[in-house]
Design brief:
The structure holds two protein chains of two kinds.
Chain A: E1 5-9, H1 13-25, E2 29-33, H2 36-45, E3 50-54, E4 56-57, E5 60-61, H3 62-70, E6 77-82, H4 86-94, E7 99-103, H5 107-119, E8 128-131, E9 134-137, E10 142-145, E11 148-150, H6 154-165, E12 171-172, H7 173-181, H8 189-203, E13 213-216, E14 220-223
Parallel strand pairs in A: 1-2, 1-3, 3-6, 6-7
Antiparallel strand pairs in A: 4-5, 8-9, 9-10, 10-11, 12-14, 13-14
Chain B: H1 2-16, H2 22-25, H3 30-40, H4 42-60, H5 72-141, H6 149-181, E1 189-191, H7 193-204, E2 211-214, E3 221-224, H8 226-242, E4 250-256, E5 260-266, H9 276-279, H10 297-307, E6 311-315, E7 323-332
Classes of the chains: A alpha/beta, B alpha+beta.
Chain lengths: ~230, ~350
Amino acid sequence: MSDARVLVVDDEPQILRALQTNLRGVGYEVATAATAREALAAAAMRPPDAVILDLVLPDGSGIDVARELRSWSEAPILVLSVVGDEAEKVAALDAGADDYVQKPFGIDELLARLRALLRRAGPSTEPVLEVGELVIDLDKRLVTVGGRRVQLTPNEFDLLRVLAQNEGKLMTHPALLREVWGPAYGTESHYLHVYVSQLRRKLEDDPSRPRYVLTEPGAGYRLVAPVARS
Amino acid sequence: MSAAAVAAVTGVIFGLKQVAPVLGLSILYLLAVLPVASVFGLAYALGVSIASMLAFNFFFLPPLHTLALTDSANWVALLVFVVTSIVVSELAARARRRAFAAAEADALRRSDAAKTAVLHAVSHDLRSPLTAIRVAAGGLESGSVALGEEDRAELLETIRLETARLERLVANLLDLSRLEAGVAPARRELWPVDELVSRALESLGPDAARVEVTLDGDAPLVSVDAGQLERVLVNVLENALRFSSPADPVELVVGSTGDEVLVRISDHGPGLADGDVERIFEPFEHGRTGGEGTGLGLAIARGFAEANGCRLWAEPSAGAGAAFTLALPSAAARPTLVR
């Protein structure tokens, strides 16, 4: 992973510099661009393994850059969005971005997202998935948390399976609904909210403070390995 | 309207002229003149006085049913009436102008006060974290300050905490301006309230550990903008946490009345005086003593709550901690999930 090439696109020189320093520090090869035009040119010249993309650029929107990149590249795109601009964020995800972090973000959060995006191109195909203390046996359809057996309904199990196969990645509402309930259920996101709250009650020690299944409001859900709480 | 008033007064005088001298009754026409003067101003009032005078002459002064006058005393009476009504009209019109000017001045003064409050809040609340960050960063880069490992960690922690404070301030100012400009449309979806609560606890960060939560797994779903309701809950919780000692928990209880889902947040802080339960929802107000925030959080919380059809209020409870209740209208029963 340390050789991965990351293209960072942001028009703010201080942010560009801080990101560049931090990304190089953990071993990535970094290219930078300050405008939409520069970004597309840089990506065309040497295709990156991942793109970190600011949504507000002087010569256009990052959404257009995401759409253009997605038309010929499979490289994951991590969008930098601004708090409160939910619509912008969702539009970027629709245009082909894979995930987002909200400005102002912490570098740990950004690195974690980037790692998850680079880990594998597609979902995991392992027969047994382990996330923190959570173990999911796909063949036997068995789930345990810290050794304790958890009874799930078929839909709950499928939801957990899809989330776990994409550990750390943002799974949008439409993507989850399609994978679990089928293509006819693209917009029934309240089903998802209810199933997730049910799933949490079975998996989490404290369902009001979920550590595995996290909500990304307006966008979707992600399954993560819990971090130790301070 | 003025014609109707004149006619009505004429009718009243017809009724009264049996019991009182008719000349004295002319004063009753002022009842028609005064309201006109105070609402529409002097010019209209003059018209109404002349109409009144003509009506009085026509109906009550001999020779009746003509505009001619025989008695010179009646001339004097009419003249007195017209002069009185002009003076009264002018006074009423002046009072009206004065009230108008006063209201305008008041509005200006209030918007000035709001601006001053914003500037004050911004200059103080922006400057103090900026100073802290600058001093900490300066200490870290200075060659002349000898720092141990612990000191460095402390300075870095200062920078982290103070940037978080700036972040919250900017987010609050932005939310407030969006709310006041009406550019924060609610993107409503059906949500279980537990989801909204857990999301709010997550964005509270480490302080969330001090919140004791009781959820209601059977409460109906609500139709709200999850992001905006998260701001409501976070701001009310932050307020409760700020006003209670670190040793005391803040309690959050979800319940349901059928029509509404209620989220009650209570603390063990100093509580609220009767007069403060509404004032604390005004921007830049510090209801409770010892407030160190900008006084924006609760104003924003109520703004977003109302934009989503919810109600948010506080209950007076001096000495016994404060209690806030958020009432969300039920939108749908929880679907029963068989699979």
